[in-house]
Amino acid sequence: MGKADLHIHTSHSDGMFSADEMLAHVEDQTDLDVVAVTDHDDLRGAWNVREKWASGRHRFEVVAGMEITTIEGHLLALFIENPVPSLRPAEETVDAVRRQGGICIVPHPFTWLTRGMGERHMRRVMGKGRAGIGFDGIEITNRTPAGRAGAAKAKRLNDSEFWLAEAGGSDAHFLPAIGAGYTEFEGTTAEELRAAIQARQTRGVAGRHPSLRDLGLGQVMRQTYRGIMSTPRAVGWGPTAWSFVRRIVAVR
User: Fold this and answer.
1) What is the pTM of this model?
2) Contacts with 138 (C-beta within 8 Å, 6 or more apart), sequence order
């Protein structure tokens, strides 16, 4: 069975490692077969990693993606080649990803610690009934504090009602966290991963997330500050704030 970490952030957004550092770590310190680069609201980090990956010889494959801030919450878009606008309704965002042939995964759902999509919003999107609208997978293993907060509910609802592909990701912002959560699938390549997600034949697996002591308090504090400063700029928080607020009010 193959292993894929579908949720990794580099220093292009609020991660604490470069593309070169990430590639070396995945190669030497993990047994992952596929990794997805999903920087916040920006595809350039994934392009950078993939370009460097292509210039070397690696035993794993790289998927380009981004973690998009929709009005309702975050959405992982995988297998995309063009950036998708942020601060749009989830249905509109899913449409934009689908037009590229991409895949939509709901990360860290039902959590209050970050911008996780809520149950009501998920049900609304999944209940539209239009061809191409809906999610492909739901993250049921994410070993960060934010991811753990809603994991049990995500697993329960997915097993009983949603029946989406199980996804696992580390939501790594630090090198030692890469692979702490992963998606198990039949095969080893990115295309086999895509096929397994679309066939709903994947399994989210939880590993050990590094502790605060492992990471170091100073490093965690620097990453927290980096996250606060980088993500709002990436989504154009300043010039679009009032528009964003009006959209939220309309959706809710």
Assistant:
1) 0.86
2) 105, 106, 109, 154, 158, 162, 164, 165, 166, 167
